[in-house]
Amino acid sequence: MWNSRRIRKGDRLAAVAGWTDGKVLVADRIVDVLEALLRPGDRVALEGDNQKQADFLSRALARCDPRRVNGLHMLISSVSRPEHLGLFERGIANRLDLAFAGPQSVRIAQMVADGSVEIGAIHTYVELYARMFIDLMPDVALLCAAKADRAGNLYTGPNTEDTPTIVEAAAFHDGVVLVQADEIVADLPRVDIPGDWVDLVVEADRPFALEPLFTRDPRHIGDVEILTAMIALRGVYERHQVTSLNHGIGFDTAAIELILPTYGEQLGLTGKIARHWALNPHPTLIPAIESGWVASVHSFGGEAGMERYTAARPDVFFTGRDGSLRSNRVLCQLAGQYAIDMFIGSSLQIDRDGNSSTVTDGRLSGFGGAPNMGHDPHGRRHASPAWLDLGYGEGAGMRGRKLVVQLAQTFRSGGTPTFVESLDAVEIGTQTGMPLPPVMIYGDDVSHVVTEEGVAYLYKAHSLADRRAALAAVAGVTPVGRDADTGQLARLRADGLIAFPEDLGVEVRSANRSLLAARSIGDLVAWSGGLYDPPARFRDW
Predict the structure, then answer these.
(1) How far apart are CA 367 and CA 358, in angstroms?
(2) Nearest residue to 139 via CA among 38, 255, 30
(3) Are 175 and 140 contacting, i.e. CB atoms less than 8 angstroms apart?
(4) Residues 501, 504, 505, CA angle at the centre, nearest 5°?
(5) Which among 374, 365, 359, 368 is positioned nearest to 438, based on CA atoms?
(6) Which helix (H) or strand (E) holds 25?
(7) SS3 letters for 80-124?
(8) Which of 115, 121, 326, 492 lies at a C-alpha separation of 20 to 30 Å from 49?
């Protein structure tokens, strides 16, 4: 038999026919629907994106009877909600493949330790979605959209994110696609996913949960973040003439965005660097956009409150004919992997060789997209000045190199050192039986490390000893920094392996909040001409 999956899908849909009107489900019978659709051991893709959550469906799934629904293998890219892990506590699910677990990182670490959750793998986003087309094809996909019509056509709006990819993985291998919609309407603003890919839709009890993950309040950016931003701008962006890039989440990169129109302008860098971005619509990027720094932004997802602003700047953002942003996490991850010259992000721990991880003692955060963008993709073939600036080899072996930059303060909050002799991830990997330590970015991919102490140009190191010495020189008084050989500093500086603020022409005393183009959320609203509508918790006026 060559159509067994199709037959099983037909049986599942027939089992819920009593609660449907065409493709539209009766919302108050959603638990009954899930209990009829699902089979023990099913692979279930639950959205669980980086920001948006199919929370009506996840809440309903958590209410199912474990005697009827159990042993599920959950595919959740971002484990963000309490009920995601409640599924495992109740025995509804027992195996999990994920990419990120920020808000639930402590809880999931505890559950893995006590055996409540069996981890298939901690993936990157692209890796998890790719496996949904190979060996992790979903039997059922539980997704969300802003609007649906009665034929199942979907409008995903600014927060399209991962939905099209997951739908395709399920729909074209005879999985059931069930979508919660904020509204079921007669006419859609645009069709983002065609109805013949969708089996069932249900109107949710409230709009899907949306986390403003990339919003940073400038009030919390201090002098250390500003100094680090100045060092990065002079020692990396200006030096290598970086025009295409990705910024990770954090106050350090937010500080860079906010000093572009001030310090960057003083340096005469407008139009020369930071033109093309793979980036969610960060509110802290608004002053740079309004000042003419930014030519284009392609986004992984949207950002709550930025809808009217992105619609009003179609020359910069990718928008549809209806005016709203079109995001796509997989395509933006691929852009971040191959089409940009620099990834700059941060980590919770970095070891003496430059390996880094967000998996630390008692915390299993996952990686998200950092490993996709935070490596030198050997498949790249197009040249750019920044890529060639890190070039090496000769003849047929000559190639450029992507800038992979780790931006880190030497100590995190509470006085916890960022730079450690050995990553917690090594021990955690051993304790949990992982075949490899959960390293986020491998040290041999890291080209630069920037701290408030200076820049380590690791790509210039010709030996592991030089690499370690350069990293130690900018690691402050952390366990790694205390091993620095002060006698080597002059040689490392002369060889260009490290640069301190004075080497870069950065005045440390100038690093203060006066350099920020916006110092509050209210300032960002003003820069946007009133188009930015920040979530309530970020309103400070």
Answers:
(1) 7
(2) 38
(3) yes
(4) 85
(5) 359
(6) strand 24-25
(7) CCHHHHHHHHCCCEEEEEEEECCCCHHHHHHHHHCCCCEEEEECC
(8) 115
Other beta carbons less than 10 A from residue 185's beta carbon: 15
How many residues appear in the chain? 541
Q: What residues are paired with 344 via a beta bridge? A: 247, 405
Q: For residue 492, which of 509, 512, 471 has the smallest C-alpha distance?
A: 471
Q: Is the dihedral of CA 464, 469, 474, 475 positive or negative?
A: positive
For the record, the structure tokens of 334 come out as 């691929």
* Partners of 24 in beta bridges: 21, 201
Q: How many CA atoms lie within 13 A of 201 on its CB side?
A: 28
Contact 340, 400 (CB under 8 A): no
What are the 10-residue block averages of pLDDT along the chain, 541 residues in total?
95 97 97 98 94 96 97 96 96 96 87 91 94 98 98 96 97 98 97 98 96 92 97 98 94 97 98 97 98 98 96 97 94 96 94 93 86 93 96 94 97 92 92 88 97 98 96 96 90 96 97 97 98 89 60
β-bridge pairing 118-122 and 93-100: parallel
Q: Which amino acid is at 510?
A: S
Q: Which residues contact 89 (CB under 8 A, 6 or more apart)?
A: 111, 116
Q: Which residue's entry shows tokens 């969610």?
A: 280
